From TrEMBL:
This is Cytochrome c oxidase cbb3-type subunit 1. Keywords: Electron transport, Membrane, Respiratory chain, Transmembrane, Transmembrane helix, Transport. GO terms for biological process: aerobic respiration; electron transport coupled proton transport; respiratory electron transport chain. One of its GO terms (cellular component) is membrane. Pfam families: COX1. Gene3D superfamilies: Cytochrome c oxidase-like, subunit I domain (1.20.210.10). PROSITE patterns: COX1. Residues 260-717 form the Cytochrome oxidase subunit I profile domain.
Length: 717
């Protein structure tokens, strides 16, 4: 029933998302004859959808109120004895052991039963939300097109929607409390039954069940207890198979022996990263809508030119950078079998990076920027805390590696530490003013822009993958040598390719040629890395269907190859004539930064956080996150690449610039639709992260009953 309900809600949200991105087209005078004859249709449909959403939430709250009333009545009803038998039969090994210890002891519990929750604050009836219906508009039709009227209605809808969301959260909390109260009452009754029972058959059956639950294989059933002998040299035993980066996996997610300080810090990194992902992509969602509804607002702070760098920098430095560093704070000491050198440095880096993104976003929205250099729009005083955070992280990781208890430095730490070193160099090149004159600034911009993507995000993320992919497959990386080959060739070729963004520009022709050759050379690390990852899957493909992390890794690997090879193809002079300065580069950047970096980060987060908290996300919502992100990315990139190719052909034919704008209009609608699906997937991800981190107390009837028998047994449960 829950799955059907989820599918229904998912279809409704998808339909609303689709309409919300396409409806603004009908409000534009340039959209066609239909828009001219119905200029307010888009706004009317928006109001209709908002009304449907409010009414739907109100109906849902009304049904929940009925459930609350039913739960309240159930609390006063007698406990069903057959449910208590079910609780007894479903006891786990620890509960059975605690109960048998109690029965074997001659001392009876003298403690008084724990009291039930005395009072509960009830919510107002959901029907009160429907007490006041908005009066129908009695003004002229043109009034709906006034900006002031639209803003007023939106401002009214915002607190209403926020209030409904709060009501939903509060209602769910009340239902959870009522359910726990009912379970506590059942636990009281179960405790009485267990305390008075002397049935030898029940005790014998529980002992038998405990033995069955505790049974484990010795893991030597096939090999026996004798050590292997190889008198004829038939067995190839490797004595130096590499670092043991993988622990034996179990079906249930158990919390490993991780320092609570490290766990807390890593979760804060990932939590802040999740916040910036929502913030940055919400801005991006609004920008996508503005492509088809450019007159959505007239505020300078919300103009496209100011919000676009807010979007890119928030997801670059806030989401991706914090997610990478958060995962690295776990990986670097883990593969060295040691502890992180300094938690204080880790916390300082977290604070400084968040400070950078906050100040940078405010400055960009206020019009304070670094003269338009792409991805370096933050002025240097704003970017300085980020640079200090990188230095602190580098010192921290180097000290951690120096204290390692392993002989080798695992390849993941090679990539992570090298990425930080290169990024410090990149930041110095980009912000020191000595060569920022004329064409020198153009060359520095090309170097910074591409190195920021390849030597910070890509190099760092690959290091994270080299740990988490083998860990999730429970097998070592296929080839250490391929990893080293990819590492050094990426350092060799990627540092040369920045100026392929300025083909046919006034910069030296030989420098453009070097960038093209370097772009061709990038095929070596990409093919080596892709081969290494795919061959690691060899013999483990059957695990994909039973894992919610491996599909994210597979998508990241696919886009790592296709997106990187696409970048090589774009570097040639012939393709530059068609694709450069079009939306093809926008599609390519999302194919790489989103398809590679984001999917790899999500895979690492889903792999790590349950190991730190012991709580897994709702798997169906992980699936919703995966498919919405993947389908949204396809809807976003494929139409843009196709339309941009046609636009480049128009330019080569000497057509007017405005013809290309008209041509791209339908493809921008697809961009908005795909962006909406991607943004919706981030909401699912944020909720999944919340479920993995926040502890929601639910009463276990059997455990609560045994605790009531003897409070001294509480520690054994």
């Amino acid at each position: 029933m829950k799955i059907k309900r989820f599918k229904f809600l998912f279809m409704v949200m998808f339909f609303v998302s689709l309409l919300s991105t396409t409806v603004p087209v009908f409000g534009q005078e340039q959209a066609g004859v239909f828009a001219k004859t119905h200029p307010q249709l888009g706004f009317i449909l928006f109001i209709a959808l908002a009304t449907i959403g409010i009414v739907s939430l109100a109906v849902w709250l009304k049904s929940r109120q009925g459930r609350i009333n039913q739960e309240t009545k159930n609390y006063d009803a007698p406990v069903q004895e057959d449910k208590l038998d079910t609780y007894i039969k479903n006891m786990d090994s620890e509960q059975i052991d605690a109960f048998l210890k109690f029965k074997s002891s001659s001392r009876k519990s003298s403690g008084k039963p724990v009291g039930i929750i005395a009072t509960l604050i009830m919510l107002l009836p959901a029907s009160a939300l429907l007490a006041q219906d908005p009066e129908p508009a009695k003004t002229a039709n043109d009034l709906l097109g006034e900006t002031g009227v639209i803003i007023t209605i939106v401002l009214i809808l915002i607190p209403v929607l926020v209030g409904l969301v709060l009501m939903v959260l509060k209602t769910s909390n009340v239902l959870r409390q009522l359910t726990n109260r009912r379970r506590l009452k059942e636990a009281d009754r179960l405790a009485e039954i267990l305390e008075d029972t002397e049935d030898p058959e029940l005790i014998a059956s529980l002992e038998k069940r405990r033995a069955a639950l505790d049974f484990q294989l010795s893991k030597r059933e096939l090999s026996g207890n004798l050590s292997p002998e190889d008198n004829r040299g038939l067995i190839n035993i490797k004595s130096n198979a590499g670092l043991p980066v993988v622990e034996p996996k179990k079906k249930a997610v158990k919390r490993p022996k991780v320092d609570p300080k490290l766990s807390k810090m890593v979760l804060w990194y990932l939590g802040c990263a999740t916040f910036w992902l929502l913030f940055g992509t919400t801005v991006g969602e609004y920008l996508g809508i503005k492509f088809v509804a450019p007159d959505a607002d007239s505020l300078a702070w919300l103009s496209f030119g100011r919000l676009r760098p807010v979007h890119t920098n928030a997801v670059f430095w806030g989401w991706a950078s914090l997610a990478m560093l958060g995962l690295a704070n776990y990986v670097v000491p883990r593969v060295g079998n040691t502890r992180l050198a300094s938690y204080k440095m880790g916390w300082c880096s977290l604070i400084l990076i968040n400070l950078t993104v906050i100040l940078g976003s405010l400055c960009l929205m206020a019009g304070i920027n670094n003269a338009g250099g792409e991805y370096r729009e933050y002025i240097w005083p704003v970017m300085l805390p980020f640079a200090i955070a990188l230095v602190l992280s580098l010192i921290n990781f180097l000290n951690t590696v120096a204290r390692r208890k392993t002989t080798e430095i695992y390849i993941a730490n090679w990539y992570i530490i090298a990425a930080i070193i290169f990024t410090i160099v990149i930041a110095l090149v980009a912000y020191l003013p000595w060569w920022q004159n004329g064409l020198g600034e153009t060359i520095a911009q090309g170097y910074y822009m591409h190195q920021g993507v390849g030597m910070w995000f890509m190099l760092f993320t690959l290091g994270v993958v080299y740990y988490f992919l083998p860990q999730q497959l429970n097998k070592p990386i296929y080839s250490y040598s391929l990893g080293i080959l990819a590492f050094w060739t990426q350092i060799l070729f990627y540092t040369l390719i920045g100026t392929h963004h300025f083909i046919f520009s006034p910069i030296p022709w030989w420098l453009q040629t070097v960038a093209i050759v370097g772009s061709m050379g990038m095929a070596i690390p990409v093919i080596a890395g892709t081969t290494n990852f795919l061959m690691t899957f060899k013999g483990g493909w059957h695990k994909v269907s039973g894992s919610y992390t491996l599909p994210f890794f597979i998508v990241g690997i696919i886009f790592y190859f296709t997106g990187s090879m696409q970048g090589t193809a774009e570097a040639f002079r012939t393709t530059n004539l068609y694709w450069h300065f079009t939306d093809f580069t926008v599609a390519h950047s999302h194919l790489t930064m989103y398809g590679i970096i984001c999917f790899f980060m999500w895979a690492g987060i889903y792999a790590l956080v349950p190991r730190l908290t012991g709580k897994e996300p709702p798997q169906i919502l992980v699936g919703a996150h995966f498919w919405l992100a993947l389908i949204g990315l396809m809807f976003y990139t494929v139409p843009l690449m196709y339309g941009s190719t046609l636009k480049g052909i128009l330019w080569m034919q000497g057509k007017p610039f405005i013809d290309g704008v008209v041509l791209m209009a339908p493809y921008w609608v697809w961009r908005a639709v795909g962006g909406s699906l991607m943004w919706l997937s981030h909401l699912f991800f944020a909720y999944n992260f919340y479920r993995m981190v926040v502890k929601r107390k639910e009463v276990n009837v059997a455990s609560a009953a045994i605790k009531k028998l003897n409070p001294s047994l509480n520690q054994s449960l």
